Amino acid sequence: MKEIWKRVVPIAGAGSFTLTIPENAQFLTCRVQGKTPVLWVVVRPTAKEREYKFHVFETCEQFEHYDDLTYIGTFQIKGGFVGHLFVQGAVKL
Q1: What pTM, to 2 d.p., does this model score?
Q2: CA distance 19 to 70
Q3: Is 93 inside any structural domain?
Q4: pLDDT, tens digit (0-9, with 9 covering 90-100), for 23-72
Q5: Nearest Cα to 39, choosing from 50, 24, 52?
Q6: pLDDT grade for 90, boundaries at 50, 70 and 90
Q7: Which of 23, 35, 66, 88 is most buried when burial is the number of CB atoms within 10 A of its CB?
Q8: Secondary structure class of 4 (helix, strand, coil)
Q9: What is the DSSP string of 19-75?
C-alpha cells in the first residue's frame, strides 16, 4: 500500500537539509501551501527508512560542485524568495 506524504521544506538559512523518508520514495512536487514550502512524496510507509539529502538553491546561485542532483520543483514565497528544490542521489520522479 502506498501513501502520499507531505513534508515541510525548511528555508531558514536556505541550503541543504535532510529528511527521513521510506526508501524508494517517489518525489512528486514542491509548492507553497499557505506561506510554507512543502514537498509531496509517494511512499510505502512500511518500507525501511533512509535519509535523503535535499538542496534549495536561489535563482542565479551557482552549484557546479553537485553532480548527482535531481530537480523536484520551484516554489515562490510572498516577498520575493524563489527556491529550486533538488534531491541528491538516485531517486524516482
Answers
A1: 0.88
A2: 15
A3: no
A4: 999 999 999 999 899 999 999 999 999 999 999 998 888 877 777 899 99
A5: 52
A6: low
A7: 88
A8: strand
A9: EEEETT-EEEEEEEETTEEEEEEEE-TTSPEEEEEEEEEETT---TT-SSEEEEEEE
